[in-house]
Amino acid sequence: MISKFDKTVTLSNGVKMPLLGLGVFRAEDTPELANAVRAAIKHGYRSIDGGAVYGNEVSMGKGISEGIKEAGISREDLFITSKVWNADLGYESAIKAYDESLNRLGLDYLDLYLIHWPVAGKYKDAWRALEYLYKQGKVKAIGVSNFQVSHLEDLMKDSEINPMVNQIEFHPRLTQMKVREFCKQNNIQVEAWSPLMVGKLFDNEVLKEIAKSHNKSVAQVILRWDIQNDVVTIPKSINESRIIENSQIFDFDLTDQEVEKINSLNEDFRVGPDPDNFDF
């Protein structure tokens, strides 16, 4: 429909995943969220990223259903993601959690299902459940979220199928080179959550200068930087004009020098929990 949204990466199993999507973390389960999802689809977005713990899958699903109708597309044109929460990281409980997410979303299948956090002693059982769902054809691709190299190595030691995606906190202050390099070597697609660092980068002088030279916003520069670093990105917004703005990143290129300048802003600074030290 809109060429910029045809931009995809091909996962290790051949499934195509859009480079840009809409994230719904911290959006309440309200008509406002349903409208935001519907608007995103109307404006060409084809990827929506959710998670059971966000507590908003009903509104997300309503927005998907309305968006499909309004845009005149089919379910197969979309790429829908959800995640199994920590409390459900057992074999049977993860399968049950998947079915419950589908039910809330009003969908027959997901395109991507992720383990949300690497809870010690639990994620391997959950991964076996995801492998089962994948082999049964119930989900198109499976992966993990917030996994560091040690977690990935531990998981892959016993897995039949390697994760196809690793969704991690990624922004100019947290470039996660070690994890990204490992994922690249093992054909695992990296995806960014909190790519805009919850707005904490909008006053950065380096980013403002680069944005000015391209006549773009700082947000657009950061999202473009994600793409040029081969990272799938899912900025969260429920504001229609911001949703449109976030999509206008395929009509310019950052120079190699600009990419390096942004890379050099890294401080290994997290806005979210540390995957090596969390207790939930």
From TrEMBL:
InterPro entries: AKR, AKR5G, Aldo/ket_reductase_CS, NAD(P)_OxRdtase_dom_sf, NADP_OxRdtase_dom
Record's keyword annotation contains Acyltransferase: no
PROSITE patterns xref list: ALDOKETO_REDUCTASE_2, ALDOKETO_REDUCTASE_3
Keywords for the protein's UniProt record, in alphabetical order: NADP, Oxidoreductase
Keyword Transferase listed: no
NADP-dependent oxidoreductase domain location: 27-267
SUPFAM superfamilies tied to this protein: NAD(P)-linked oxidoreductase
Family: Belongs to the aldo/keto reductase family.
The protein's name: Aldo/keto reductase
Naturally occurring in which organism (per UniProt): Candidatus Clostridium helianthi
Lineage of the species this protein comes from: Bacteria, Bacillati, Bacillota, Clostridia, Eubacteriales
